[in-house]
Here is the input.
Amino acid sequence: MLDVQVIETSSLGDRSYLAHDGEVAVVVDPQRDIDRIVALAGRLGVGIEWVLETHVHNDYVSGGLQLARLTGARYGIAAADDVSYDRVPLRDGDVLEVSPRMRIRPVATPGHTFHHLSYLLDGPTGPEGVFTGGSLLLGTTGRTDLLGQDHAHELARRQRTSAQRLAQLLPDGANVWPTHGFGSFCSATQASGDASTIGREKQINPALTLAESEFVEQTLAGLDAYPAYYAHMGARNTAGPGPIDLTPVHTADPAELRRRVDAQEWVVDLRSRKAFVHSHLAGTISLGLDGPMATWLGWLIDWGAPITLLGDTPEQVTQAQRELARIGIDRPAAAATGDPAQWAGDRHEQVATMTTASFTDLAHALRHGHADSLPAPTVVLDVRLAHEWHDSHVRDAVHIPLPELPHRLGEVPAGPVWVHCGSGYRAAAAASLLARAGRTVVLVDDAFADAADAGVPMAA
Here is the structure.
């Protein structure tokens, strides 16, 4: 029996895989921080023979090239992908005899990209599953607009054809192992479940249940914005990413932190938003490590802008470095650890707090014009994405998606701003941006799903 190990990167909604027979292994779609994979192979006592990419990735910097160089493994990529380094060009119909007990069969599955490959995994008794990358996901498929809107319709059509082909090639009991779909913006719609088989997908996946015209229409209608940093990932992966560097960065003292804040640089507080609202260095931005920090920071910044990281501990900063390196932000400009009082130094007035509220508070304030010592909401700002807004929103709210807010702060009407998102994480980032701009802000740190029941007037 073959064993497939999952290497989860939950902050990006992706998975890498290591499949082995007890002696040799194949790695599929490795993230850039390959030390996790090398350590796993060491614990299992297996040698990595092949490193395979399903496609040139748009959502992260691949570790495949460096993993192959480090281990001496063969590096397989679609022959049609034009890359700047040596690799084994793979085509539909090839057979990789990894060992007498393990075989890989590349299958052309265009849709997420034009040259996308999936990899069928065969054991001694036949097919065990398929590594589908951004093709057939769990209850959905990969998005088809990453190569431009001009190609989205054609790729959606091909995506369905590819899913149908996999369903025909494999038995119902074969496992489906996608790279995307666990919160990744590479997924066309929200994925369903944590594991699946071809048989289950035949029952629930729109690519296998809808006619072509219906699938294409549904897929294109569901596509929303995706992170701006994606624009840099494909080119980086085509050129050949260098090795990751996680050595400690320069430590900033209070004077340097103040200079960076005054210059409107991205000084990012990695602590939870609960800690941030209680006490933070004025002018810093809340993007806690308890959420998808790298995704939102990579989306918000002007690419190449200096970033300074603030954390409780060196370990927190190191974790943030790792997450940022996965999307090509290699070296933060500076870092500091401790607490806001230490970061402020002798300028105690630079330690700030933030006002928070619930949707119940917002309902009361909208009804009565005030809410127990909270500033009356002149404007309610919704920073969720477009599809969330269209599903339901607070009546008369202003909608500016979080990724657009840094360049649209001037569009927020004057007066106290009550800002919300779906759960509080994005709203905390937005509230800190508004506070840095000198606005009076209340963070609605609450679940939007509860807003209607709390009495907030809603519109659809």
Summary: The domain at 254-352 is CATH 3.40.250.10 (Oxidized Rhodanese; domain 1).
